[in-house]
Amino acid sequence: QINQISDEINSALQELDETRKKADEFHELFIKYNKESEKEHDAFIKAKNELKDLEKVLGTIKTKARATRKKEKEGELQEKAVSLFDKFKKGEQLTTEDLLILQKAGFL
Description:
Layout: H1 2-89, H2 96-105
């Protein structure tokens, strides 16, 4: 009986060793994948921050472009108004639209 119990203990110890080895292997895999996951997460955060920065730059560019277009439009309106005002001073007939342009430009 003692031999049988001894064999059972040895068998159980072998199973325990195998289970411990598997647990160690899985733990190593867990650590490996956790590190990879952290790297990917850090890369994602970095990309997200870069995207935010690019969106800010894009917003600034759009704002400047709008301002430039507005200035160009105002410049064109001013040029047109000067031309129309010269026509007005010469006594030429102006349309309602022409009068509106003069008004927008501040000539009336």
